[in-house]
Amino acid sequence: AALACQSLRAGECEVALAGGVQLMLSPEPFVYASRLRALSADGRCKTFSAGADGYGRGEGCAVVVLKRLRDAERDGDRILAVIRGSAVNHDGRSSGLTAPNGAAQEAVIQEALRSGGIGPGDVDYVEAHGTGTPL
Length: 135
What we know:
Blueprint: H1 2-9, E1 15-22, H2 28-35, E2 60-67, H3 69-74, H4 102-116
Antiparallel strand pairs: 1-2
Keywords: Phosphopantetheine, Phosphoprotein
Pfam families: ketoacyl-synt, Ketoacyl-synt_C
Domain Ketosynthase family 3 (KS3): 1-135
């Protein structure tokens, strides 16, 4: 969504699609994740919980249609949310494959707030990534 929003802001497009898909087409990823003890024993992901013991694999897909707010209002579109800002980075070096890099995560949050011209108290929703694997 970050690149789609960037293209909308730059006037490169009038409408953008942001989507993703996860398909499990082969057993190898299950075997690998099991060997790493990354899969939850009960198949449930307990992200951000002290009881996190792995993640549950699943399939799915989603696509959202993005437009500039003024264009969506002009066109009478049903507006479900407004993206004020976004940012992308990579955690870089950390203590392990499943361990977050706090400094990198803080930096990307600060950049997203800056790009939206808002402060932490203005945020209503956060889309976060968390596997639920134990640290």
